[in-house]
Structure formats: structure tokens, C-alpha cells
Amino acid sequence: MKRVHKISLAVVTAGLLFFVMFCWMPSGVPVLAYHMVGAEEEELYSVSPAEFDRQLAYLKENGYTAVSLQEMFSGFAGTTVLPTKPVIITFDDGYRDNYLTALPILEKHGMKATVFVVAGQAGQGEYLSWDQVRALHKRGTEIGSHTMNHVALSEISPAEQLREAVESKEILERELGAPVVFLAYPYGKFTTETVAVLQAAGYHGACSGIPGLNAPDTSRYSLKRVNVPKPRLGLWEFKIRLLRAKIVFGFELLENRLR
To answer: What's the total number of domains in the chain?
Structure first.
């Protein structure tokens, strides 16, 4: 009987914990990390147009509103009011399908995105042309940097990191005629020196590969994201990825409150 009592107590405790996490604790902001929206069967990071459409429909049906990184930080600072359930939709690398395929689906659902462009690859092969980058910007897409040459910043010197950050920022700003103040780390890799480099280069924040959600006290130079690769389980996998990020965020909040 004592064993049964202990198991029952553990189940009740776990239930109460999850109730507190999901009902009482404040929600974080999910930043979704995409790469491509296309029909490439062999590409791990290519989500089909149909799957992308279903994912955005799910977000909309569940009350999410797409915002930019700038809008998230303005909301965190209290200068603007964020929607009840904000979500940030990001794309890394700057593939042409971000404009040709993803943008029409985003607009269909009344959503917008942030596209991180590798400045040194724009206009080449499968990457966005500068005309397409400008068109994205004019149609409400936030443009960020993904460095100059898509190198892992943690594997090069601070001087080289600065060159990657500054050159890409300058080129993007020249092509857009607008400030570019956010960056996504290639491969999600960065160091403490990288943060200082980005601050010196004039960036206001950066997206990492760390899983989870974001709150006002999240470091703006290590923003967490929800990776969205080609799904193997359809929409269920997308829902699970969002749920997992929320669970991680909930436990982080709980840990901080218990300190």
C-alpha cells in the first residue's frame, strides 16, 4: 500500500507541476527556424509547401500572431503591446523559395517572417537575388544577417568574426536602404567573444540554435528557437516541437523561481 501511495503522490505532484507550468506561468515567445519551403525530397531542412501551409493554418487557428524580432523586443521593453500569442517565423540562409513559395503562403494567412541572408551568397544559385531580398523587405519581411560567408563563428578568431558581421551588415543595409540589426548564427554556434563582436558591430540581437522559448529576461544575443525540419509525422510533429519548447521553457522558469 505504501508503494501505491508513493506512486499516486508522484503522479499527483507531476500533474500539479504541469498545471502550474501551462496555466499559471507566463508564456514565452516561440521563434520558429525554417530553411527551405519546397519539394526537395532529399533535403532535411526543406518543408513542403503543403506542410508549411498546414503549420501556418494551425498557428492561426490557435490564436498566434506573427511578429518581427524588432516588435518582440519593443513589446518586451513596454514601448508597444505584443499580441496575446506572438510567434516569430524565421528562415536561415536566404533561399529563393523564401520569396517564391513561402511568402505567398505567409501572406495567405496574414503572417510575416524574418529572413536571415548570407550576404556573400545572394544572387548565386538557389539563393535570393538582391531584387528578391528588396521585394521581401518591401512586403513586410524583416531582413537579418546570416554572416558574410556562412561560417561557424565559434571556429574563427574574433577579428574574423567581426569582419563577417560588419561586412554582411554593411552590404545588406546598402542594398535595402534600411538598418539590419539582427543576426542568426550559422549552425547556431557562437562564443562569449561573439556576443561582444555583435555588440561592437551594432547588432541588437541574435538567434541561436538553443531550443526553447523567449522571455524579456532571455539574453538578446542567444535567442532560442524551435527547429522545423522536414516533418516525418506530419502536423503532429510540428505540434510536438512546439510543446517540447514550452516544456523546456516551463522547467527553466520553475528552476529560476526555486533558486
So the answer is: 1
